[in-house]
Amino acid sequence: MRNSQEVKRFIIQVKNHIISAFIKSWQVLSEHRWLKYLTLSIASVILLSSIGFFFIIYGGGLIVDEKKMVLPATTMVETTDGEYAGRLYTENRLLTSLSDVPDHVLTAFIATEDERFFSHAGVDFRSVLRAVYKDIIALDKVEGASTITQQLSKNLFLTNDQSWMRKTKEVMASMYLERNYTKNDILELYLNQLYFAHGVYGIETASQYFFSKAVSDLTVTEGALLAGMIKGPNIYSPYINEENAVARRNVVLNQMHRAGYLETEELLQLQGQGLGVTSQPEAAPLYIDDYLEVVIQEIESRYNITRDELQRGGYRVTVHMDLDMQKQAYEHVTNTAYYQASNDEVEASVVIVDKVTAGLKAVIGGRDYTIGQAHHQALVTHQPGSTIKPLAVYTPALEKGYHPYSLLNDEQKDFDGYTVRNANNQYEGDIPLVEALVESKNTTAVSLFNAIGIETGKEYLNRLNLSTKDDGLAIALGGLSSGYTPVQMATAYNTYLNEGVYRDSSAVISITDRNGVAISSIEPTETQVFEKQSAWYTLNMLERVVTDGTASSYDYAGALAGKTGSTQHATVEGATKDAWFIGLTPDFTVSTWIGFDQSDDAHYLTKGSSQAVQLTKALLTDINQIQLIRSEFDRPSGVEDLPEPITLPEITDLNASFGLGGFNLLRAELSWSTSIDDRIIYHVYEVTEDGKKLIGKTTGEGSYTIKRPSILQMTRYYVEPINPLTNQGGNLSNPAMLSLFE
């Protein structure tokens, strides 16, 4: 306790002495005003210098924006077999790890740009003094002394002006980086952010661009060429000026020799080599953009990654694209020979959906589409016309108990003021459902839609991701206020290939971030929309559309089913607004649409859906030459094939005669020529006073036995062929007369 009090007294005495000394000193300075001002000036300079020094040393954090140290990186899009499918970027940069860069490449950059990189703390003061001396001599800022860290700081956080203030900020940022990051961190970031001309950023991208190889495979001379380019990328690019590139590369090799990285003999040998660059890579093919736009929009919606982030984030995306199909689809869409329209501004879209995965194998959004354009025709809605009939009417009717050979009435009808006519204004009376679909009858479609119920049809559309707010019978003919996209239509029709199961289509299979971490997404839905028998019957009927119906024009040798569709132009009589064909092969579904961005008096099609049929069949023919499309559809287990149609014969040779039966009883035999179709049922009639009377039936046979014929009078007989599929009868045969006495 005593010692503590003594310490306190000592401290108080020292404080009093200091205060006394300060007062005496100030009195002396007051008597000599010049000395007071000099002392204050020196103290101010020391104080300000100290503040400035500590601000430079520790103020770099105010300049460094760590968000900018996350470099924009190219998102790579590739197919399932690893083929390059496209790139998305703001800066074309493939990031690499420092461990992947060979030592001889690192030494090329260090020897050229910052020989003392591993020994300084961000600023090389020896180089600074040399540069300051030259600046003073020239009375201007003529030489830089930037280290690799300073270059990185300038490129990431500052501008390119040559002011002392910018240089001070550069020093501050560099010293901050050196205190907070390792040399390897700085060097890796530096190599990844460099620009190499031609829109190429980062050493990995440059390696692939100039040499078609990974940075890990670069040779000494190749690394030297890249190291030399960064001083003036456009000046030293081998694709712009080969002579400059060689000279600059040799300068770098000399620097490596001077720094002790190369022996003299090795230097001379390397300087004698050519540049070894590959042919300058071509720009991305035009046919890729259409698909990449679908990828971007899908990732935005399913993965919640914005377009900007996708173009900066360095993701790796695997897609369902088939490059051959995509190219073929593009070449056919851009071929003007298929189009018959009022002018050459006509547009088209083709979408191909894989049967098994529902993956988008090809998507063309227009004849000249580029990423970001508003009118991607594969993603824009169009009125579907008659392509909606199977989806909203005929297959739902099969689900509700109708059969492909159920009879429907084909005649002009009026439904509370809504008059329905066939496109050709021809009517056939009662016809089978399958025939109504094959011939794309409007009257039967609307009548059947009315019979099963509008809400029933809409329910099936909704389950096929084809919801509509419309409520009228016009839905049955595709007369919608909005419509559907070619992607939606191809996806919906793909259900017929999959036993009635609807699967959401998609372009993206998987996506990983720049660190290789997989990003989860919303799983596509799978819904049993139709019974597999209904789906199979519909597929069979759609095959007949191609062989015998509205899609029978033009040739295609493979298995093909499909449905045509067209919509009327609103103002030009007889013109078409939208032309469709949805085709199904055993392996995939293809949706083709032809029309205009805006349809008006000057923009219309002069021909209907046949031009979409022509384009599709030509496309399939070319695809089949590249990769064989299977020749038969997969029949599901436990289903029946659609029966072949029956043509009833004209019977003109009915004959009647007597013969002996058992126990010598008299009998009569009727005979006639039969059809080769043994499914036909033959009704046998006997004419009586009350008219004709059905006395028997036989199936597939050309004879009938009358066991107890009348022998006392002449009897007349007829035969009528019956179609068992529709229960329709044909024409009566010629009469056959039977009499024992004549």
Automatic annotation (TrEMBL):
InterPro entries: Beta-lactam/transpept-like, Glyco_trans_51, Glycosyltr_51/Transpeptidase, Lysozyme-like_dom_sf, PBP_transglycosylase, PCN-bd_Tpept. Residues 84-257 form the Glycosyl transferase family domain. The chain crosses the membrane at residues 34-58. Keywords: Carboxypeptidase, Cell membrane, Cell shape, Cell wall biogenesis/degradation, Glycosyltransferase, Hydrolase, Membrane, Multifunctional enzyme, Peptidoglycan synthesis, Protease, Transferase, Transmembrane, Transmembrane helix. One of its GO terms (molecular function) is penicillin binding. This is Penicillin-binding protein 1F. Residues 349-620 form the Penicillin-binding protein transpeptidase domain. In the N-terminal section; belongs to the glycosyltransferase 51 family. In the C-terminal section; belongs to the transpeptidase family. It comes from the Bacteria. GO terms for biological process: cell wall organization; peptidoglycan biosynthetic process; proteolysis; regulation of cell shape. Gene3D superfamilies: Biosynthetic peptidoglycan transglycosylase-like, DD-peptidase/beta-lactamase superfamily. GO terms for cellular component: outer membrane-bounded periplasmic space. It catalyses: [GlcNAc-(1->4)-Mur2Ac(oyl-L-Ala-gamma-D-Glu-L-Lys-D-Ala-D-Ala)](n)-di-trans,octa-cis-undecaprenyl diphosphate + beta-D-GlcNAc-(1->4)-Mur2Ac(oyl-L-Ala-gamma-D-Glu-L-Lys-D-Ala-D-Ala)-di-trans,octa-cis-undecaprenyl diphosphate = [GlcNAc-(1->4)-Mur2Ac(oyl-L-Ala-gamma-D-Glu-L-Lys-D-Ala-D-Ala)](n+1)-di-trans,octa-cis-undecaprenyl diphosphate + di-trans,octa-cis-undecaprenyl diphosphate + H(+); Preferential cleavage: (Ac)2-L-Lys-D-Ala-|-D-Ala. Also transpeptidation of peptidyl-alanyl moieties that are N-acyl substituents of D-alanine.
